[in-house]
Request: fold
Amino acid sequence: REAEPEHVDFVVVPGVAFDLQGRRLGSGQGFYDRLLARLRPDCARAGLCYDAQVVAQLPAEPHDQSVDLIVTERRVRRPR
Reply:
């Protein structure tokens, strides 16, 4: 059953890469950015990737949504 965005407390999103500020690089079609924009402000957002996919900085556009945590096989990071 699909949950309505206002009922979601925690979401895990994949990414091609994440940076240390919590910005996410996706596939370029904006699906997850649109979903994340519809969630409540207090909904926790975690990005899931391998440690090698975490980089110092990614380019960002005004519509890009960030994550609160980055979870890899080695650690859990809180973006700055």
Q: What stands out?
A: Helices lie at 31-38. The chain has one domain: 5-77. The chain has one helix and seven strands.
